[in-house]
Amino acid sequence: MYRHLTETRIRYGETDQMGYVYYGNYALFFEIGRVECMRSLGISYKWLEQQGVHMPVLELHCKYLHPARYDDLIRIETRITDSPTSRIRFEYRIMNETGTLLTEGATTLAFLSAETGKPLRAPQALRNVLAPFFP
Amino acid sequence: MYRHLTETRIRYGETDQMGYVYYGNYALFFEIGRVECMRSLGISYKWLEQQGVHMPVLELHCKYLHPARYDDLIRIETRITDSPTSRIRFEYRIMNETGTLLTEGATTLAFLSAETGKPLRAPQALRNVLAPFFP
Amino acid sequence: MYRHLTETRIRYGETDQMGYVYYGNYALFFEIGRVECMRSLGISYKWLEQQGVHMPVLELHCKYLHPARYDDLIRIETRITDSPTSRIRFEYRIMNETGTLLTEGATTLAFLSAETGKPLRAPQALRNVLAPFFP
Amino acid sequence: MYRHLTETRIRYGETDQMGYVYYGNYALFFEIGRVECMRSLGISYKWLEQQGVHMPVLELHCKYLHPARYDDLIRIETRITDSPTSRIRFEYRIMNETGTLLTEGATTLAFLSAETGKPLRAPQALRNVLAPFFP
Fold first, then answer.
1. A43-84, pLDDT tens digit by residue?
2. Cβ neighbours of A70 in C, within 8 Å
3. Which fold has domain A2-133?
């Protein structure tokens, strides 16, 4: 298992008139979580795209326990719990500054060739850096 | 079961650099689906809020089968498959103009008092209009 | 001068906790305005891109007079007031259902070669359909 | 004059299919700029709202010189060039990591009573912390 923690601050434009973060915006926070998780492993998603690898999302799940609010400095915990194959799954937990768990979620992404659109095996560079965590 | 169909056109700002609709934006399309589904039953969500009822999303699930693209006129099919209690579940299917199923999803929403934040039973007006579909 | 009118409904996710539409979202409404304005002339922006023409925005101006609110069916009036050169300017007025002017704005866009990034003259097809309006 | 610098990283969901940041998303970056600018002066916008002050945007202007791209760590420079009255103007310059100026812009915001919607004079706390910069 590999686990990473990052944070971001809620923007006014991310709230809605209920006074909380709009439910669709958590997809952006999950994106931040997985991108920074990969960066912490030495793999930038931008670089992966430049190598011709696209990672479209296949599935998203999100459970809203408590609302995030404007100006909250949320903590995004991202976990990779399984060795990637032609897919990779990320699990997320979002907490506020007082440690309250606000949201739990998960995404499954594919590895595709940007050129052909065909599925790929997880890039060697990613498998290498993750190998120590899945002995 | 109650089923409703509406459509919306993909905006440029809803795409990302992969050339498809960003995965988080489907939450907006699901919102359109359920709001128009309720409107077709004679219940406007705006009116519900004015009656003091909030409907925060408790859970979101989304499965991405094929990408929606810029300028696609997507069709959003929304279904209510169970009589609402203190919660209501909407199921969605998004198709493009050629009928290809792009996305499947579901959301569960609560009914809360805007004043106290406490759970409410589904509003009587909504239960009345849905009653014929759940005999 | 060429003038076109279209409409769109305000989504919940487009509001913010002030209870109005977030100021940045008007850029999306202006996009709808100019895209539908061009479509009404027989030119789809999607088709222009397929011909290798990109139209990045060079300048945006927006004046907020009254707020748009959730569920408002706003009317977007788009005007082309000058014959396009290597640039095209669109002017916008957004009104609510009661005819109140909510927002005024304008954007200037360039025509660029998608391949080289170099400026282009306005595509012939667009100049042809606009010619009758700028005698 | 008061000047403040902050930074944020471009999210994938902020790009569009042209491969750059969507033009409407700069409004979010300007929001980050002015909020962090005020925070650096000891005034949180969240706190202002809790004091009953709303700050809707009256006018937005944005000039796009070069595109911001996915994963860019952009620098947002925010300037207050005049002492606030019943309005406050912020000027922005957005640069990428190599110092290239990408975007220039400005917003004018009002101070309104959240309760009555009536214009207010700039809050005393804000005028106090800005006073040394406008002698």
1. 999 999 999 999 999 999 999 999 999 999 999 999 999 999
2. 17
3. Thiol Ester Dehydrase; Chain A (3.10.129)
